[in-house]
Design a protein that fits this description.
Helices cover 14% and strands 33% of the residues. Strands 1, 2, 3, 4, 5, 6 and 7 form a 7-stranded antiparallel sheet that branches.
Length: 111
Amino acid sequence: MSTVSVGLFANWDKVFPNQKVQPSPSPPPVSKSTTSPVWKLMGTASTGERVYVDTASIEKLAGTADFTYKIGNELVDAHADCQGNRWYANKYGWNSPKSSATQEMLGYVCR
């Protein structure tokens, strides 16, 4: 019967000097959306402006959704509270639907 010895080498580069160990590459940074906007018309707001949702921007979480919408020519990043039937936008604070278009917007991003 023969015996086999196994050793662990702390100095791998000294045992195998021609073997270069390459570090793992870092993963790419995560961005909100890596695709071009895809605008879906929700309808006309109570202000008379058209409301669109960027379908590519929707990120759903438990009972909430982050998304971008456009009202008239203004782009707005928002956070929907789906159970509370409202959304938050930095410039405007909390909002509740005042038209079928904004109700449709909330329903769409929360589906």
